[in-house]
Write a structure and sequence with these properties.
This protein is α/β, with parallel strands linked by helices. It folds into 2 domains: about 5-15 and about 80-215, HAD superfamily/HAD-like (Rossmann fold); about 15-80, Putative phosphatase, domain 2 (DNA polymerase, domain 1), CATH 1.10.150. The protein has 10 helices and 6 strands. The chain has helices at about 15-30, 35-40, 50-55, 60-80, 85-95, 110-120, 140-150, 165-175, 205-210, 215; strands at about 5, 100-110, 125-130, 160-165, 180-185, 200. Strands 3-2-1-4-5-6 form a 6-stranded parallel β-sheet, sandwiched between helices. α6 (about 110-120) links the parallel β2 and β3. The radius of gyration is 17 Å and the shape is globular. The two termini are about 25 Å apart. It comes from Pseudonocardia xinjiangensis. This is HAD hydrolase-like protein.
Length: about 220
């Protein structure tokens, strides 16, 4: 069976406005200057555990900011996160094509499940996989590993592709020999998806690519990092 791993933020849902609003409030709460809107938007996707220190926060500030962010954002995310137009129909078409679908997101898994259920996408997915900070599962590579293990998929022998909007998706999947189809409607900076085997401009192009044979035959496993 062909398996498609799907990123969440910037791929299935347009969560940037809500995430940056709550992140800005969290940064203010810990006394760190809030970056401009463009810089905040670039923080959507990668784990805050690595992204916030790169912004200049100390370990103590990072921990406090994440706690403040989780307290406010997690309480509303499942009800205020918009789905990109066309995504439910896309997932339905992919299921009709006998593709196995799973979410692989850097978000905490429990929250990802709530969001997916809250926006009405749960019925299309075999698994919603995310981060587990208690268990040490942080970052896209660790999430992808967990998802393929739970699905019983061996990328060296079975066709599997990642779909995402940031280089973290490309890099995390590549660690397991999985190629990525990038989506142009997400939050990537210009040139960020250069490592993807294919970048699609819109939902319909993604549906056509994944439902056809060409994308699978032209995307062999990538070298593991």
């Amino acid at each position: 069976m062909r398996t498609v791993l799907l990123d969440l933020d910037g791929t299935l849902v347009d969560s940037a406005a809500t995430i940056t609003e709550h992140l800005a409030a969290a940064l203010t709460e810990v006394g760190f200057p809030v970056p401009d809107a463009e810089r905040l938007r670039r923080l959507v996707g990668p784990p805050f555990e690595t992204a916030l220190p790169e912004l200049g926060l100390t370990d103590e500030q990072t921990s406090a900011a994440i706690t403040a962010y989780r307290t406010s954002y997690d309480a509303v995310a499942a009800t205020v996160t918009p789905v990109y137009p066309g995504v439910p129909a896309l997932l339905e078409r992919l299921r009709e094509a006998d593709l196995r679908l799973a979410v692989a997101t850097s978000k905490p898994e429990e929250l990802a499940r709530k969001i997916v259920a809250g926006v009405g996408l749960a019925g299309f997915l075999d698994l919603v996989g995310g981060a587990d900070h208690v268990g040490g599962r942080v970052g896209k590579a660790a999430v992808v590993r967990s998802v393929i293990e739970r699905l019983g998929v061996d990328p060296a022998r079975q066709p599997v592709v990642m779909v995402g909007d940031r280089h973290h998706d490309v890099d995390g999947a590549a660690e397991h020999g999985i190629p990525t189809v990038g989506v142009a409607w997400g939050y990537a900076e210009p040139g960020e998806l250069a490592g993807a085997r294919l970048v699609v401009p819109h939902i319909e192009a993604l549906a056509e690519a994944l439902r056809g044979d060409k994308v699978w035959s032209t995307l062999p496993p990538v070298p593991r990092h």
